[in-house]
Amino acid sequence: MEVEIKTPIWTGDVDQKSEFLQSTGIVGSLRWWTEAILRSIDKYACDPTGDGRCPDEKGNEKYYCSACLIFGATGIRRMFKLDVNGGKHVFTGSALNIKPSGRNKGWYLGSGVVGKINLKITSLDRDFDESLILLPLIIASNWGGIGAKTQHGYGVIKIEDCPRIDFTSFREAIEKVTNQERLSKLRIKLRYGSNNELPDLREMFFAKIQFEAENGWWRNVDGIASRSNDPRILAWIDSGSVPIVPAVKNWLRYGGGTKLWKTTNQNQNERIENWLFGTTEKICSSCYGRVRKNKSDPRNFWCPNCNRPIRREETFERIASKINVSCAYPVSDNLWEFRIWGWIPKNKLSEELKFNREDFLTNLKQALSGSGHVTFPWSRLLGDQTKNHKLRVWREFKPSEDAIKPSENNVDNYVQSLLEEE
Ligand SMILES: [Zn+2]
Ligand SMILES: [Zn+2]
User: Fold this and answer.
1) What's the CATH number where 65 sits?
2) Is residue 345 part of a domain?
3) For residue 376, what are the CA distances in angstroms to 65, 122, 251, 310, 371?
4) Is 0.90 surpassed by the pTM of this model?
5) Are residues 312 and 333 in the same domain?
6) Residue 53 lies in a domain
7) Is 205 left (phi over 0), alpha (psi -120 to 50) or beta?
8) Which domain does 132 fall in, by range?
9) Shared domain check, 133 and 35
10) Among 164, 190, 216, which residue terminates a domain?
């Protein structure tokens, strides 16, 4: 399958020196998408990065979730092999640092891989069906991204001659994988559990924004303007996309965009900010506030918000952003597009933070469509050589908000509609 990379795919620091794109990062993100899809149809999928990952062992029995049955886990092998060929690095050397107005630290953007790549899926199990991999791949390519660091704009792809897949075939393939008889032969059992707090397609949103731009518009993007002669920037532009993420995120997180998510409670806001946009600071895992060193116990920490000592295991080293912004990529002469998408959970923590998820999404949608009390200052962020910015499409599993099928409340049909690019 030929894939055109629209915005660089992040290959990980380890692979920076390697000439080739490794399949591990791609498989890892396909697994993430598969889990979100499985959970949206109420199938259990464990968090493979957490302590609760499969297998769950009870006596002599080993229990695995459907995602592990496909992607493998300790004790069972992956049902397929993915070979990735082609692609080349955008630039060599250290990461670019882009500092939009008002920022001291800025965003670090390392090289990724661009060009055309070939993906080859090989079955390693007679019960494997390609739709298990194709379906998440198509949804990721239509609406999100693949590989790591999608929050920094990496990983938008376009599948050439995209095969047609029906959600029913994915459902059937899952039934086959989790078939009782098959599992008995493997001497394992299907694991059930709670998907709470884990990514679910029903809690995700996807937006595509388009604008018209004159040649060389990128030179005026906030944060790029000051370094438009940097050979790494030039190489990035040459590779076909524009790193607008720092400009857009800077506004959302620190600028006028804060009005979209800030509450009236100042104490909550820093925690909401960390939760929504991610952080590399050490934070408390129960309230998402920043922790301090505990003076009386230097190995551990103190959470000023919870007002109690916090053990090292109760902290997060870093949290990923729940909001992804892609680089801008061209769709036709002078017409450009980018994506804002993410997973905004309706979980315990968002309730505790008094973060109003529905209000935030409504505010964001209105700001993008230019109809809200806050609107994106596009010419300041993307430069005055861009115009006619518009929200082309907004997707969310919420019957009244979903543009394409307003009366849709059935998950299967929603997923099916995400497979058919509008
Ligand atoms: Zn599992
Ligand atoms: Zn705390």
Assistant:
1) 3.30.70
2) yes
3) 42, 45, 8, 39, 10
4) yes
5) no
6) yes
7) beta
8) 2-190
9) yes
10) 190
Higher pLDDT, 50 or 39: 39
167 plus 208 within the same structural domain:
no
pLDDT digits over 100-153, tens only? 999 998 999 999 999 999 999 999 999 999 999 999 999 999 999 999 899 999
What is the number of structural domains in the chain? 3
Q: What is the largest CA-CA distance in the chain?
A: 66
Q: Nearest ligand to the C-alpha of residue 74? A: 1
Cα 34 to ligand 1 centre (Å): 12
Cα-to-centroid distance, 67 and ligand 1 (Å):
6
CA of 314 to the centre of ligand 2 (A): 9
Do residues 401 and 344 both lie within one domain?
Answer: yes
Amino acid residing at 285: S
Residue pair 413/405 in contact (Cβ under 8 Å)? The answer is yes
Q: Label residue 388 left, alpha or beta by phi (over 0 means left) and psi (-120 to 50 means alpha).
A: left
123/241 same-domain check: no
Task: Tell me whether residue 384 is in a domain.
Answer: yes
- Please work out, in degrees rounded to the nearest 5, the angle formed at the alpha carbon of residue 50 by the alpha carbons of 44 and 52: 55
Contact 248, 325 (CB under 8 A): yes
pLDDT at 327 over 90: yes
One-letter identity of residue 196: N
Q: What strands lie across the sheet with 113-123, from one edge to the other? A: 80-89, 113-123, 2-9, 157-159
Overall average pLDDT of the 29-56 stretch:
95
> What is the arithmetic mean of pLDDT over 160-173?
93
- Find the 305 Cα to ligand 2 centroid distance in Å: 5
Together in a domain, 106 and 210:
no
Return the percentage of the chain with pLDDT > 70, whole number. 95
Domain shared by 127 and 248, yes or no: no
Q: Which two tokens stand for residue 161?
A: 């001659």
Q: Please write the tens of the pLDDT for every residue from 352-385.
A: 888 889 999 999 999 999 998 999 999 999 999 9
Say yes or no: 306 and 333 in one domain: no
Among the bound ligands, the one closest to the CA of 64: 1
Report yes or no on 195 lying in a domain: no
* Structure tokens, 335: 């017409």
pLDDT value at 225 more than 80: yes
Going from the Cα of 137 to the center of ligand 2, the distance in angstroms, rounded, reads: 37
